[in-house]
Amino acid sequence: MDNENLALIESRIMNLRGQPILLDRDLADLYGIETKVLNQTVRRNIERFPEDFMFQLDEEELEDWRSQFVTSNSIKMGVRHKPYAFTEQGVAMLSGLLRSEQAIRTNILIMRAFVAMRRFLLSNAQVFHRLERVEFRQSELEENVGRILDKLDGAQPRQGLFFDGQVFDSYLFIVELLRRAQSRIVLIDNYIDDTVLTMLDKRLPGVSAQIYTSHFPQTLQLDLTRHNAQYPAIEIHMFDKSHDRFLLIDDDVYLIGASLKDIGKKWFGVSLIKDWTTNDLLAKMNL
């Protein structure tokens, strides 16, 4: 059983800011307590946790972490605040504060996991150095390819066709469109949920976001209120004249064959409507 638990702990350890860490929610799960209980214990003893023992993820780190779990609704709903990361020293300090039998057993395994990881990194240092050189060359190649694709994007319409099961591929396609926006995003979609709010958070700073929909349940109003209290605001407007879904990126109008909350569940397509601009469509909506 200890081997299984050790493997579980090793799977939770992340490399962040050049060192192995465990997030507060993962530690709490391993200890068998709630995340808020763990963080309350830390706050009551905050003088024991300097920055090299514990730190809070910044916006970029949080975004990178969240993007790894885009297909899990349960995880997405639990990342409204920036998690805290604990280094090996921080976990060791926790061992003096959490004294349940499970916490003691878990801390022993965590220390072993950190030691095993250090040994692994030391014994494979040359391999990792070679990989870094390969990744650097690959990064240069990707940048060159990206510049070529950007030029092609200016000459060719952006479109895509997706089939049932392509949840991640279709998600990435839509997010890429959202990240291309420089000033505004307008979504016309009769059926939305909290996942749409999360997708719109991928937009660049300073880009406005508006949703026109015919269905906006009270439960989603609570999600929107809490979202807008922490993240750049998303405006919701009621609109019931559209049967299809449209995504307006700056001056480009895209026809979306499925509600964004359902992309990847069934076949759907995305196509750029070349003869229409965002202002044309908003004028039709009398906006």
Describe the protein's architecture and organization.
Helix 1 (2-12) crosses helix 7 and helix 2 (24-31) packs across helix 3 (35-44). This protein has 2 domains: 2-123, Mlu1-box Binding Protein, DNA-binding Domain (Roll), CATH 3.10.260; 158-284, Endonuclease, Chain A, CATH 3.30.870. The protein is of the alpha+beta class. The chain contains 12 helices and 11 strands. The model is unreliable at 70-77 (pLDDT under 50). 51% of the residues lie in helices and 18% in strands. It is elongated. The protein has a 7-stranded mixed beta sheet with strand order 5-11-10-9-6-7-8. A 4-stranded antiparallel beta sheet has the order 1-2-4-3. The N and C termini lie far apart (63 Å).
Fourth-tier CATH superfamily name of the largest domain = Endonuclease Chain A
* Architecture per CATH nomenclature, i.e. the level-2 architecture of the largest domain: 2-Layer Sandwich
Number of self-contained structural domains:
2
Order of helices and strands: HEEHHEHHEHHHEHEHEHEEEEH
- Low-confidence residue ranges: 70-77
Any idea what the radius of gyration is? 23 Å
CATH topology of the largest domain: Endonuclease, Chain A
- Biggest sheet features: 7 strands, mixed
Bulk shape: elongated
Defining key terms:
alpha+beta; 11 strands; Endonuclease, Chain A; 12 helices; Mlu1-box Binding Protein, DNA-binding Domain; 7-stranded mixed beta sheet; 2 domains
